[in-house]
Every structure is written in C-alpha cells, then in structure tokens.
Amino acid sequence: MRLPLAIRYAGLLADTGVRHGLIGPREVPRLWDRHLLNCAVVADGIPHGASVIDVGAGAGLPGIPIAIARPDLRVVLLEPLLRRTRWLDATVHELGLDTVTVRRGRAAEVVGALSADVVTARAVAGLGVLATWCAPLMTRGGCVLALKGAGAAEEVEHTLRSCGLTAVVQTYGVGLVDPPTTVVRLSAGAGGAAASG
Length: 197
Fold this sequence. Notes:
The structure is a single chain. The chain has seven helices and seven strands, in the order H-H-E-H-E-H-E-H-E-H-E-H-E-E. By secondary structure, it is α/β, with parallel strands linked by helices. The protein has a seven-stranded mixed β-sheet with strand order 3-2-1-4-5-7-6, sandwiched between helices. It is globular and about 40 Å long.
C-alpha cells in the first residue's frame, strides 16, 4: 500500500510547495480531490511497465501521483524552471521514488533525446499547442494523455482537425473523484479528431 507516500507528498505540497509558489495556498484544502486523486486515477489508462514523460511537471502533477499509484512505470518529470526542478528533485528524493527522474528543459529541447510510451500534461497549454509539444516525444504506438476540464470535447473540435492525431475524450475516476478526471488521449491516427465519452 502506497498511501503513506501520497500522504507525505500532500504534506510537501501543502508546506514547501506553497512556499515555493508551486501551488496556491487556497488549493491546500482541495489537494486530495482536485489534485492528487484527480491525477492518480489517470494511471488506469497507462499500460503496465510503460515509460512516461510528464511535460511541464510543475509541482509534479500528474507525474508524481501516477508514479505513486503505479510503481511499475518509469516517469520523467520534465520542467523548464530551475526552482521547480530543484523542488521536484528534493521531493522525489524524500519520497524515495526511484522510478522517477527529474529533467530540466522544454519539450522541444528534448525531442530525439527523450521519448516515452505515454506523455502526460496538465494545465500546461491549449490542446493544439500541447499536441505539437508532446506528440514528438511519443514512441511509436504511444499516446499523449492531456488532463483537461469539462470543455475538452469542444477544445478537441476546434483545435485538432488538421494535426494528424486522433483524439478521444475519456473520463477516469467515476465514483472516486468528483468531478471525474477528463483526459484527451492523443495518438497517431488515420487523420482527424474524434471525440467520445
């Protein structure tokens, strides 16, 4: 059971995470439902033993909750800002997450050097921009899991028509988190974007 790790991570977010400006103080009462559980449920959509790159990792969301929920995954937290990568390094070390590494940089800077079966992102950019950043990091047959809000289907409709990726809107954590987590799964497809629930 890895619940103690999640509790320690929540404590770090509420303490040094707030002090370093990685999470707002108003988010502390909502850490579990809005952040940790909201991210952890996405692990259900990741194949066993997969490699994961979390683009724009920030405070480690969704990468750290996914790594806590799924110790079989190898996770890279990719973050361009030095103060955030320092916090992430310290947090990963304190939690003893030996399947997680922190890398400083932007997605465009690591294309060719890093790739993964699954690329995740949360609160980083609009879907169209996110697709251009994340798709080059996918391995063949891989996917991007973009955590989005309730308007995900509309965002898919307006931004992905011509990018060459297939988009499917999925929901995770029904009955576990309220509201459930909405994810847009992007994969190399035969063109066009399709939305489904």
